[in-house]
Amino acid sequence: MDEEKVKDRQMAMIAYVVYTGLFAGIFWSSIGCLAYFFNFTDIRPNVILDPWAIGDWKTGWLGTVISIILMGVFSIIAALIYYAVLKNIRNRWIGIIYGLVLFFLVFLVLNPIFPEIKPFKEIERNTIITSACLYVVYGVFIGYSISYEQQNRKRTVQRHTNEHSQ
Fold first, then answer.
1. Which residue has the higher pLDDT, 117 or 101?
2. Which residues, 6 or more positions from 118, have their beta carbon under 8 angstroms from its beta carbon?
């Protein structure tokens, strides 16, 4: 296969990762919004706006929509990191671990950035369990989507190479 086709396939894969990250962030933060609405968690999605936005608008529907979109944008970064580091590992445990790493990164390391989130030891058990579960299914979604597509593309390239070499 010539080098131009390889570059095109790599760019197509990067686009796939970006779309996957955007969709995953929007979808799972929407599920998180529902979890907040049904009182499974005390952390509202709008918490992402607290360090940067001023005013009551951020707690209304506009703030929720902007927060969900912003989560999608940050999710693109998480998906690109997964792609760069773990794309060749097709195992649900890697996705689970990735989700838990992101959970602990947000709730322990980045916690001081978000004044609405209590220190980890003061957060209610339901909030921790719900949030951890959301991060785990997010990690599995990102991990499986990216790794599966990566493996599928490798098989296609190998099959294509084998057909042309015969």
1. 101
2. none
Burial 136-164 (b: 16+ CB within 10 A, else e): bbbbbbbbbbbbebbeeeeeeeeeeeeee
Model-level pTM? 0.88
How far is 147 from 42, CA to CA, in rounded Å? Answer: 33
pLDDT at 6 over 80: no
Structural tokens at position 51:
């360090």
Domain extents in the chain: 3-160
The pLDDT of residue 12: 87
**For residue 72, is pLDDT > 60?**
yes
Question: Residue written as tokens 């001023």?
Answer: 54
